[in-house]
């Protein structure tokens, strides 16, 4: 049985329908979980506008059809038989709630991703996808997880990097795209204050071309690689 069906389709038309209602109901049922635009109903049934309008109101009152939101054409009225649930093509899937983007769900998933990254330091898209599949109660695709991570990158909440195979990246193949929580950016004065040059006892001997110089100083090199 199609997962879009909520209950079995009645074998015969409901009693008490006039010809116009019956014709319209059959057209709507034929579209299953895709639904149909009111204008297309008029085109397919060849019925006058006033008959279609009156019949649709009657079928809604009798709870044989329902209005559904098509996220691609929100300004157009779509109708569907009550025994069907809208397909993802129409409803937008789990990212949407009654035709509107479910921002609360997305924010919760983003927070979950960041918490997971903080615990693991560096993660791949596949790792985040596998983690979310353990938590959510609906089917979530690798592409959808990628969209969440891209959103977090744009928010500067996480950084997209490539593994160098060292340190935190030791378990991730070199060159693999992965993600880690971004280091909070502080005031620039704080960055300069953290320079290793200030407390260095060899500071007076440090020159650009000397034996002791910024280009050979390991502490200065480490400081340059910090993410302020």
Which structural traits does this protein have?
228 residues; alpha+beta; Arc Repressor Mutant, subunit A; 3 domains; two-stranded antiparallel sheet; 7 strands; disordered N terminus
Q: If helices are DSSP runs of H or I spanning 4 or more residues, what is the number of helices?
A: 9
What is the SS-derived class? alpha+beta
H-E order: HEHHEEHEEHHHEEHH
DSSP helix fraction: 40-55%
The averaged pLDDT comes out at 77
Strand order of the largest sheet: 1-3-2
Task: For the record, give the distance between the C-alpha atoms at the N and C termini, rounded to a whole number.
Answer: 56 Å
| CATH H-level homologous superfamily name of the largest domain | Winged helix-like DNA-binding domain superfamily/Winged helix DNA-binding domain
CATH architecture of the largest domain: Orthogonal Bundle
Number of strands: 7
Largest sheet: 3 strands, antiparallel
Strand portion: 5-15%
């Amino acid at each position: 049985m199609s997962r879009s069906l909520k209950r079995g389709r009645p074998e015969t038309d409901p009693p008490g329908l006039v010809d116009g209602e019956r014709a319209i109901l059959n057209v709507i049922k034929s579209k299953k979980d895709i639904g149909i635009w009111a204008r297309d109903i008029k085109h397919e049934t060849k019925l006058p506008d006033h008959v279609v309008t009156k019949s649709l109101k009657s079928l809604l009152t009798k709870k044989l059809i329902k209005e559904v939101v098509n996220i691609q054409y929100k300004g157009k009225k779509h109708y569907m038989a009550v025994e069907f649930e809208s397909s993802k093509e129409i409803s937008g899937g789990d990212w949407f709630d009654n035709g509107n983007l479910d921002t609360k769900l997305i924010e919760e998933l983003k927070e979950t991703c960041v918490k997971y990254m903080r615990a693991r330091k560096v993660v791949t898209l596949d790792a985040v996808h596998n983690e979310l599949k353990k938590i959510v109660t609906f089917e979530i695709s690798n592409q959808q997880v990628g969209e969440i991570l891209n959103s977090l990158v744009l928010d500067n909440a996480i950084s997209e990097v490539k593994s160098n195979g060292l340190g935190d990246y030791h378990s991730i193949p070199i060159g693999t795209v992965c993600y880690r929580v971004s280091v909070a950016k502080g005031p620039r004065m704080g960055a300069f204050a953290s320079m290793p040059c200030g407390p260095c006892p060899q500071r007076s001997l440090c020159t650009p071309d000397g034996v002791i110089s910024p280009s050979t100083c390991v502490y200065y090199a480490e400081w340059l690689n910090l993410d302020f």
